[in-house]
Amino acid sequence: MNDDERVLRMIDEELDAALAGIAAPPGFAAAVRRRVASSSVSALPEILDSIGWAAVLAIVFMLLLWLAPMARGAWWPVFAGSGVIVPALFYGWRSIRAIAE
């Protein structure tokens, strides 16, 4: 057993000793189950994740444009952009599909 496990075990034993006489009200477990069963999943976290990833990808793309000025062809920004945007779209599509399930 390493130090982390030992410390966690000590904390667990101390909490058990300190909270041994405390009990939840009789209807608490039923109320929690009712509340969890009736709650719906929000799409907001996935939307915020998509916005955050879009911002990160936009920053990366802008850094690419700034750090590598136009080289011999004008097509490299298109390839770099598609290499960034296609995975972002795939991630967004996968997240939306996961919400729908």
In short:
It is built from four helices and no strands. It is mostly helical.
Structure description:
With 101 residues, the chain is an all-alpha fold. The chain has 2 domains: 1-39, no CATH class; 42-101. It has 4 helices and no strands. Helix 3 (44-67) packs antiparallel against helix 4.
Task: Please trace the helix and strand order, writing H or E for each element.
Answer: HHHH
- What's the helical proportion of residues? over 70%
Shape: elongated
Helix vs. strand class: mainly alpha
Strand percentage: under 5%
- Distance between the first and last residues' Cα: 41 Å
Largest sheet: none
Domain tally: 2
How many strands in all? 0
| Unreliable segments of 5+ consecutive residues | none
How many helical stretches? 4
Instruction: Summarize model confidence as the mean pLDDT.
Output: 80
> How many whole angstroms does the radius of gyration measure?
25 Å
**Oligomer category:** single chain
Write the layout of secondary structure elements.
Blueprint: H1 3-18, H2 28-38, H3 44-67, H4 76-100
Helix pairs in contact: 3-4
Keywords:
single chain; 101 residues; mainly alpha; 2 domains; 4 helices
